[in-house]
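ok, trying the design again with the full structure, not the truncated one.
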């Protein structure tokens, strides 16, 4: 069956009869390798597509000079010459690293960091950097001082975050693949809200900033947003050729579904808000289909994971600490104390929440560290290979629902109600992938998440391939808006 997406009131896409057509990133790479498409031709077509959708989606933060950075990496790299984008919190030579904030200067970086180096080693040609909420701290790219990024399926709604602009460009067909990173769901959230594939890898799988390695709980992982499972699988295989963590089993190049597995169905949130019935129904239906394909489905609870209501409080305390560290090491260093006045209200409130919660931080960190062991232990105790759940715990909100000028408590309650599952894998360090799974009453995509123990990205990709075969993912141009 096809994952149905009904017509939205204001849909924006860039698919057309040009050099890129309806190709995914693998298709573009194959056309370039075969000599059927030139790197410059692909870049020009993508740039024109970006200019078509950006006025409506506000996905682009900064442009590189015409033609982009050029195809980097070896000519036989997996995505040689494929046009792409990098999130604006990642140091890339020639682009400002502004992290979604007016508090940071727009001075272009002189050199790329390790994350960008691994990204371009796969062969991609970066054309632009993409919009994100301030410091990646929220789930919607809405701002106090400028227009928000919007969902191309319906521009009245949020594109999600924090890899916001990347998701908008890939979903709209402007680009076939774009960079993202994930500290609380920031790849998987926009993947779910835009009908994309988004894999948050095992902690330490891909290149990362040195500063992250010294955090008491490193919650951030790098990755990409794509329209097909094969593009995500190809990316991880290519990234691994550039840099592989010897402490983890290799992902390899996963090319299709795998063996039958025992899958735990999760129908509870880590928060008091639970999971909206509209989000849960298509995932239950998917579980039934997987059972029909020979997989064993069992029910799991948060008690199996030893997660209780204190998890959210601990995560938010730690989130406030991370906000403080990020601002202190970027904005303050760049502009001094005056930078605080340029921050969005929600960011300032997060900083103050971190200050107020400082006495409880050591206990919160100790409990968050224990999550990894409990998470890994659950797979052994329950004998499951992977968990299946909705990616989101509420449907896509309209623009304004997560306005950063809202009273802080109201803003946080709305955010927690929306993202009641994804942070678990950032804290545990285990991998998780979001794949398209149905649509809500407004016709916007929804997602299902598979999560596994550390090092099991290959198994998750195999399951994702199977979902894609059972329910071919709808493209934004498949039905008329």
């Amino acid at each position: 069956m096809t994952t149905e997406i009904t017509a939205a009131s204001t849909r924006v896409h860039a698919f057309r009869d040009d050099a890129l057509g309806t190709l995914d990133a693998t298709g573009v790479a194959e056309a370039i390798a075969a000599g059927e498409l030139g790197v410059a031709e692909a870049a020009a077509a993508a740039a024109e597509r970006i200019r078509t959708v950006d006025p409506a989606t506000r996905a682009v933060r900064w442009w590189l000079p015409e033609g982009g950075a050029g195809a980097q990496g070896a000519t036989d790299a997996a995505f040689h010459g494929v046009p792409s984008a990098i999130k604006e919190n990642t140091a890339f030579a020639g682009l400002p690293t502004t992290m979604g904030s007016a508090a940071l200067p727009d001075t272009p970086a002189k050199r790329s960091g390790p994350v960008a180096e691994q990204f371009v080693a796969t062969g991609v040609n970066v054309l632009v950097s993409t919009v994100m909420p301030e410091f990646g701290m929220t789930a919607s790219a809405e701002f106090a001082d400028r227009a928000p990024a919007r969902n191309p399926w319906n521009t009245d709604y949020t594109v999600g975050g924090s890899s916001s602009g990347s998701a908008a460009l890939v979903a709209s067909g402007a680009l076939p693949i774009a960079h993202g990173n994930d500290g609380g769901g920031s790849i998987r959230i926009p993947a779910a809200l835009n009908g994309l594939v988004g894999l948050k890898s095992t902690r330490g799988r891909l290149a990362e900033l040195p500063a992250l390695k010294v955090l008491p709980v490193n919650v951030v992982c790098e990755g990409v947003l794509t329209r097909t499972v094969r593009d995500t699988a190809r990316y991880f295989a290519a990234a691994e050729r550039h840099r592989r963590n010897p402490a983890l089993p290799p992902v390899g190049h996963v090319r299709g579904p795998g063996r039958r597995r025992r899958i735990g169905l999760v129908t509870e949130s880590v928060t008091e808000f639970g999971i909206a019935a509209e989000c849960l129904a298509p995932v239950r239906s998917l579980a039934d289909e997987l059972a029909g394909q020979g997989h064993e489905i069992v029910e799991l609870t948060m008690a199996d994971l030893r997660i209780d209501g204190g998890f959210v409080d601990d995560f938010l305390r730690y989130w406030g600490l991370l906000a403080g560290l990020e601002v202190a090491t970027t904005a303050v260093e760049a502009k001094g104390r005056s930078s605080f006045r340029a921050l969005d209200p929600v960011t300032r409130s997060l900083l103050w929440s971190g200050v107020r919660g400082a006495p409880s931080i050591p206990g919160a960190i100790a409990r968050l560290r224990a999550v990894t062991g409990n998470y890994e232990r659950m797979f052994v105790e329950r004998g499951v290979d992977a968990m299946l759940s909705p990616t989101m715990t509420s449907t896509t909100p309209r623009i304004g629902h997560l306005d950063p000028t809202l009273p802080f408590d109201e803003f946080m309650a709305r955010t927690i109600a929306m993202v009641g599952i994804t942070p678990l894998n950032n804290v545990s360090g285990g991998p998780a992938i979001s794949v398209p799974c149905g649509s809500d009453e407004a016709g916007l995509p929804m997602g299902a998440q598979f999560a596994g123990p550390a090092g099991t990205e290959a198994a998750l990709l195999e399951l994702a391939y199977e979902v894609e075969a059972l329910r071919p993912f709808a493209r934004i141009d498949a039905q008329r808006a």
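Keeping the full-length input from now on. The chain has one domain: 25-470.
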